[in-house]
Write a structure and sequence with these properties.
CATH topology of chain A: Glutamine Phosphoribosylpyrophosphate, subunit 1, domain 1
Helix content of chain B: 25-40%
Function (chain A): The proteasome is a multicatalytic proteinase complex which is characterized by its ability to cleave peptides with Arg, Phe, Tyr, Leu, and Glu adjacent to the leaving group at neutral or slightly basic pH.
Distance between the termini of chain A: 27 Å
Number of strands of chain A: 10
Largest interface: A-B, 12 and 12 residues
Pfam family, one (chain A): Proteasome
Distance between the termini of chain B: 42 Å
GO cellular component, one term (chain A): cytoplasm
Oligomer: heterodimer
Structural class of chain A: alpha+beta
Family (chain A): Belongs to the peptidase T1A family.
Low-confidence stretches of chain A: 244-280
Low-confidence stretches of chain B: 54-67
Mean pLDDT of chain A: 88
CATH superfamily of chain A: Aminohydrolase, N-terminal nucleophile (Ntn) domain
Organism (chain A): Corchorus olitorius
CATH class of chain A: Alpha Beta
Number of helices of chain B: 7
Mean pLDDT of chain B: 88
CATH architecture of chain A: 4-Layer Sandwich
Largest sheet of chain A: 5 strands, antiparallel
Shape of chain A: globular
Shape of chain B: globular
CATH class of chain B: Alpha Beta
CATH superfamily of chain B: Aminohydrolase, N-terminal nucleophile (Ntn) domain
Structural class of chain B: alpha+beta
Number of domains of chain A: 1
Radius of gyration of chain B: 21 Å
Number of domains of chain B: 1
Number of helices of chain A: 8
CATH architecture of chain B: 4-Layer Sandwich
Strand order of the largest sheet of chain A: 8-1-2-9-10
Strand content of chain B: 25-35%
CATH topology of chain B: Glutamine Phosphoribosylpyrophosphate, subunit 1, domain 1
Number of strands of chain B: 13
Helix content of chain A: 40-55%
Order of helices and strands of chain B: HEEEEEEEHHEEEEHHHEEH
Radius of gyration of chain A: 19 Å
Chain lengths: 280, 262
């Protein structure tokens, strides 16, 4: 089998100017189950797909509250994600102890990125194998950032990471222009639609996803299952009514059809194959 | 202490001398909220306090009981009001050198804040809390910064005014004062202060307080600074003096009617 000469060490460059170990860490993010985030001027919504290791086990928690004004959704190695969430919680609580104010989201994200960067430049370390969608609210409004194992970070209007996130990204790209002025409830609905895109055929249920909201006058919190179920039901009923009239979201229509053909159980088996063992 | 052993147990700081009494001090600061922001006033005197040590004992065992105290007006243009960043104004009474150290801490704080270059900046509330933490932390080390601080500012249309004491006691109010101002100025402010003071009325009110302090606080001098902070920024006015009248009969014969007093 072909063996890469330059990928055994994080600090070794390939002649093409790449750091393979860092790229592999970014690959771990792609293997993890999907996480999405989107924001308006006043609210941020984070969502993720919960995938259980086996029929007998529960799933891993993928959305964490950092502070009243910051939350994260992760994809990749959940263990690394928890470590970074704890770090972020620490930074927030220390800041509010010293200044009795909330840490600006942008600053936390830079600190987090710097922490990830250190791991790309030390021979005795490994990069974090997790991507974080950081949603937050501060003086300058609502923000959504993506933090990458490479130490890069980007601000987004809406973004998706993890396995089959491309489908969600396509959905979000089609609609993001309206997000800035969206209501909170519309954002939640769009979040659920984006999550559904990543399922590719599986039925969207409240047990397979987690949604969290944060906004002006609304501290970060994870929506409980009953609420999510209610929202899913409401737009699914609405969707069925609109379908014959020619719904603009063609993909959603197709998917509904695919659901009926496939049946959730055997689809579930094939989707598991795409998940890296690390993610579980 | 007789043996070395207990000293060593106290750790590396046990040999160092803490501030046990102030050396050069400033007196009251008075500040109020007004219509557009905060006004702050202080005089510019700096008292040097003597501590004569009896029997040539080493400084290390200096105790107040062994000292004979006195003070003299040594400095006459001490600036005790300084701007902190874009949104805050700090006034201090107490040890001047400790105030200068606090200013160094805050310069560093503001520098690091600016270095983020991300549009966020620390407001008066944040700076006030930071000072509270510094003061309380130092008192816990039995090495207090010997000051009473007054912090005022405006950020995003929000006025803020608070104080911190030497040992970390802190609070917010519409008008605050340090030192003698607490006893002589605040009763006046409680009576006459209101939310919609204009700049002129605010200055007049502060001048009234400062004049009373000048008459009754022997450390005060007739050279004042008034500073203003609004959404637009900080203005510290040139020093000036107030017109005094020492012809009041109570001043001419102070002991009259006060039996037993000298």
């Amino acid at each position: 089998m072909f063996r890469n000469q330059y990928d055994t060490d994080v600090t070794t460059w390939s002649p093409a100017g790449r750091l393979f170990q860092v790229e592999y860490a970014m690959e771990a993010v792609k293997q993890g189950s999907a996480a999405i985030g989107l924001r308006s001027k006043t609210h941020v919504v984070l969502g993720c797909v919960n995938k259980a290791n086996s029929e007998l086990s529960s799933h891993q928690k993928k959305i964490f509250k950092v502070d009243d004004h910051i939350g994260v959704a992760i994809a990749g190695l959940t263990a690394d994600g928890r470590v970074l969430s704890r770090y972020m919680r620490n930074e927030c609580i220390n800041y509010s102890f010293t200044y009795e104010a909330q840490l600006p989201v942008g600053r936390l994200v830079v600190q987090l990125a710097d922490k990830a960067q250190v791991c790309t430049q030390r021979s005795w370390k490994r990069p974090y194998g997790v991507g974080l969608l950081v949603g937050g609210l501060d003086e300058s409004g609502a923000h959504l950032y993506y933090n990458c194992p490479s130490g890069n970070y980007f601000e987004y209007q809406a973004f998706a990471i993890g396995s089959r996130s491309q489908a969600a990204k396509t959905y979000l790209e089609r609609r993001f222009e309206n997000f800035a002025d969206s209501s909170r409830d519309d954002l939640v609905k769009d979040a659920l639609m984006a999550i559904r895109e990543t399922l590719q055929g599986e039925t969207l249920t409240s047990s397979i996803c987690t949604v969290a909201v944060l906004g002006v006058g609304e501290p970060f919190h994870i929506l409980d299952q009953a609420t999510v179920k209610q929202i899913i039901d409401s737009f699914e009923i609405a969707g069925e009514q609109e379908d014959p009239a020619g719904e603009p979201d063609a993909a959603a229509g197709q998917e509904a059809a695919a659901d009926e053909q496939g049946g959730a159980a055997d689809q579930g088996g094939s989707t598991d194959q795409g998940v890296a063992p690390m993610d579980i | 202490m007789a043996s070395k052993q207990p000293d060593a147990l106290l750790g590396p700081e046990s040999d160092s001398q803490r501030t046990q009494y102030p050396y050069v001090t400033g007196t009251s600061v008075v500040a109020i909220k007004y219509k557009d922001g905060i006004l702050m006033a202080s005089d510019m005197g700096g008292d040097m306090i003597y501590c004569l040590i009896a029997h040539g004992l080493p400084v290390k065992v200096t105790m107040p009981e062994l000292c004979s105290y006195g003070s003299t007006l040594r400095y006459k243009s001490v600036e005790r009001i300084k701007p902190i960043g874009k949104h805050s104004l700090l006034g201090a009474s107490g040890e001047i050198s400790d105030f200068q150290e606090i200013l160094r801490y805050l310069d560093e704080l503001i520098l690091y804040d600016n270095m983020w270059d991300d549009g966020n900046s620390l407001g008066p509330k944040e700076v006030h809390n930071y000072l509270t933490r510094i003061m309380y932390n130092r008192r816990n080390k039995f090495n207090p910064l010997w000051n009473s601080l007054v912090l005022g500012g405006v950020k995003n249309g929000q006025k803020y005014l608070g104080t911190v004491s030497m040992i970390g006691v802190n609070f917010e109010d519409d008008h605050v004062a340090s030192g003698f101002g607490n006893h002589l100025a605040r009763p006046i402010l409680r009576q006459e202060w209101h939310e919609n003071l204009s700049f002129e009325d605010g200055v007049r009110l502060l001048e009234k307080c400062m004049l009373i302090l000048l008459y009754r606080d022997r450390s005060a001098v007739n050279k004042f600074q008034i500073a203003k902070i609004t959404e637009e920024g900080v203005t510290i006015h040139q020093p000036y003096s107030l017109k005094t009248n020492w012809e009041f009969s109570a001043f001419q014969n102070p002991s009259q009617g006060a039996v037993g007093s000298w």
